[in-house]
């Protein structure tokens, strides 16, 4: 059987481009998800994996549709290989049914990981350089007045958490962080 897997990151995006390409390939069953690539929990991907048998193929539009993490992508390809399942990426011209396809896939995955590591190094170097010039990175801190208002309302025990959040314009996480900072 030939299985297709299509994923977009947000509800605002649509799967039409991927679905059309998979249908043109001749997919027997397509699994679709709208979930960010950062999440490992993907019910449709898990469901598809349960159905795979030796001789089947898994087809995706692009490699980043099945995984954003090189490690996860390699784990999936190893799972497919152990099951005797071919893995095909239409736009990346990857087809692991051949020796050259397997080799190319591994090289490409390694290059993707290298690119990610280089980006991380550049970002870290840029942040270090900015700090050396006295710049401070990260989100700007909430103003002291919002923090003080929220803590005063919390301490009075006259207001609910939603009321405190609405009045102070703080997030629940930020409010609880401020509360816990006082305890520590």
From TrEMBL:
Entry-linked CDD domains: SR_ResInv
Record-annotated active site: 9
Task: Provide a GO biological process annotation.
Answer: DNA integration
Alphabetical list of InterPro entries matching this protein: Recombinase_CS, Resolv_N, Resolvase-like_N_sf, Resolvase_HTH_dom, SSR_resolvase
Q: Which GO terms describe its molecular function?
A: DNA binding; DNA strand exchange activity
By sequence similarity, the record places it as follows: Belongs to the site-specific recombinase resolvase family.
Q: What is this protein called?
A: Recombinase family protein
Native source organism of the sequence: Lactococcus lactis
List the top taxonomic levels of the source.
Bacteria, Bacillati, Bacillota, Bacilli, Lactobacillales
């Amino acid at each position: 059987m030939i299985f297709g897997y299509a994923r977009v990151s947000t509800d605002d995006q649509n799967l039409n481009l991927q679905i059309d390409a998979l249908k043109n390939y001749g997919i027997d069953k397509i699994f679709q998800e709208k979930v960010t690539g950062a999440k490992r929990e993907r019910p449709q991907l898990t469901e598809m994996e349960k159905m795979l048998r030796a001789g089947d193929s898994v087809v995706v539009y692009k490699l980043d549709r099945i995984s954003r993490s090189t490690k996860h992508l390699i784990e999936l390809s190893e799972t497919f290989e152990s099951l005797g399942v071919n893995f095909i990426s239409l736009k990346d011209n990857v087809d692991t049914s051949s020796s050259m396809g397997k080799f190319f896939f591994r090289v490409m995955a390694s290059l993707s990981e290298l690119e990610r590591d280089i980006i991380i190094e550049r970002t870290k170097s840029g942040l270090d350089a900015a700090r050396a010039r006295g710049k401070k990175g990260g989100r700007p801190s909430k103003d002291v007045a919002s923090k003080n208002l929220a803590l005063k309302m919390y301490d009075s025990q006259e207001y609910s958490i939603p009321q405190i959040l609405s009045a102070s314009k703080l997030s629940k996480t930020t409010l609880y962080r401020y509360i816990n900072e006082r305890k520590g």
